[in-house]
Amino acid sequence: MQRPVEKAPSARGSRGESDRTSHADTGSAGEIVAQFEIRYTRFLDENGRAVRELPAFARDPDVMRPIYEHMVLTRALDRKAVALQRTGQLGTYPSSFGQEGTTVAIGAAMARDDVLLGTYRETGAMLFRGVRIAEILQYWGGDEAGSDYRGPGAPRADFPICVPIATHAPHAVGVAYAMKLRREPRVAVCALGDGATSKGDFYEALNGAGVWQLPLVFVIVNNQWAISVPRSAQSHAETLAQKAIAAGIPAEQVDGDDAVAVYQAMRNALSAARDGAGPHVVEALTYRLSDHTTADDASRYRSADELERRRALDPIARLRSHLERAKLWSEADERRLEEATAARIEQAAAEFLALPPPPPEAMFDHLFAQLPEALREQRDALVAAAAAHRAETVSGEEDGQ
Ligand SMILES: Cc1ncc(C[n+]2csc(CCOP(=O)(O)OP(=O)(O)O)c2C)c(N)n1
Ligand SMILES: [Mg+2]
Q1: Ligand 1: does its nearest atom lie under 6 Å from the Cβ of 193?
Q2: 389 is catalytic
Q3: Ligand 2 center to residue 194 CA distance, Å?
Q4: Residue 247: pLDDT above 80?
Q5: pLDDT score of 12
Q6: Is 24 a residue whose pLDDT tops 80?
Q7: In the chain, what percentage of residues exceed pLDDT 90?
Q8: Ligand 1 centroid distance, CA of 102 (Å)
Q9: I need a labelling partner for 82 at 20 to 30 A (CA). Which of 149, 178, 238, 395 fits?
Q10: Quick check: is 292 catalytic?
Q11: Residues 179-208: what's their mean pLDDT?
Q12: In whole angstroms, what is the distance from residue 276 CA to residue 201 CA?
């Protein structure tokens, strides 16, 4: 019996109606009504050699050099932030060590007016988009004012770092819906982890983005771990990208340690979304070389062998070899970059360390344009309690207690 099909599968990469017919009689359980495939793209191998014809931008110094420079900057900031945390000068910090190829290429591919909704591991994208180093440190130092990006050319519309897993995915749908409603040529980018793809928020967001055909690009930053949960225990699906298929959204995988592959996939997805072609999902396969955060010790759950193997795929070394081979980078460039990067980091760290500690009520500020009523009450209560505590301390000191 023929099963009615409302509509041919619309996801790019699907085989569509004609294949359906050719497979119709092959199975005893019924005809195949939909088939899909997920493609994987990589341009540079682990040694930075091209494995297929490179896109033109891969030889364009104006595109590639800033990407490389920001990858180096991101790694240097991570190193400094961990050192500050270890010496009691910063709160818990999540390094993006090993993921620089993905996070920087996300930021580089976006247009200024696009809106980034990222997790705590998108430092490279934030830096590329003009968030100041001192602001990033300020945020991780526990001061919410760091989320109120104010540098020159700051991405004012970008969302603050999202620590709750996947809760920013439905927000991204709202942002993209507004863009569509206002007919703005803008795209929302929602970056989230492999672990986040197991959350209901993610599936709900995919569904909304698909059904409303929103200008929204999801990037699954698959770094193989969700704290101590490995990718193999996260989902039985062969790829995380294919979760998009159920929502009618085209999806693909890229080598996330190949900045050229991530940049190209993002550029294509962003320009299609800007032109009204709807959402897209990019799964970037990378690896978290660091502990989950400074509060974690990954050696308790993953092997030294695995880490060793993955270190050899370093996205920075890979891109540098490509740039040197393409004559876009030299030893002298590297020395200059190292010096300039170290100076920028030290200057920003000094600026951060000189900031006065925020008052306790600042934790309520800088996130909402208008504080919701329930939070306003809590803020008022905190201000009153802090004032009472100060008065008590002063009178205690006066009494010589
Ligand atoms: C809603 C929610 N549940 C649990 C946590 C605790 N938590 C913090 S990070 C994390 C793992 C996230 O893994 P993944 O999405 O792969 O991102 P990654 O940290 O690897 O970048 C969890 C469960 C949280 N922050 N938010
Ligand atoms: Mg992860």
Answers
A1: yes
A2: no
A3: 5
A4: yes
A5: 44
A6: no
A7: 88
A8: 18
A9: 149
A10: yes
A11: 98
A12: 24
* 263 given a catalytic annotation: no
Q: What would the DSSP string read from start to end of 186-254?
A: --EEEEEETGGGGSHHHHHHHHHHHHTT-SEEEEEEE-SEETTEEHHHH-SSS-SGGGGGGGT--EEEE
Question: What 3-state class would DSSP assign to 255?
Answer: strand
pTM: 0.91
Q: Say if residue 190 is in the same domain as residue 315.
A: yes
* Ligand approaching nearest to the C-alpha of 296: 1
Nearest one of 159, 157, 151, 156 to 348, comparing CA atoms:
151
Which domain range does residue 217 map to?
A: 39-353
In a domain, 386, yes or no: yes
Among 301, 311, 376, 389, the active-site one is 301
- CATH number of the structural domain spanning residue 107: 3.40.50.970
The answer to whether position 358 is within a domain reads no
pLDDT in tens, 151-164: 999 999 999 999 99
pLDDT digits (tens, 9 = 90+) for 69-92: 999 999 999 999 999 999 999 999
How much is the pLDDT for 39? Answer: 98
- Mean per-residue pLDDT of the chain: 93
- Residues sharing a CB contact under 8 Å with residue 206, sequence separation 6 or more, in sequence order: 169, 218, 243, 244, 246, 247, 249, 279, 281
276 lines ligand 1 (CB under 6 A): no
- Number of domains the chain is built from: 3
Strands (E), 87-194: 115-117, 188-193
Calculate the CA dihedral of residues 255, 257, 260, 265 and round it to 10 degrees: 40
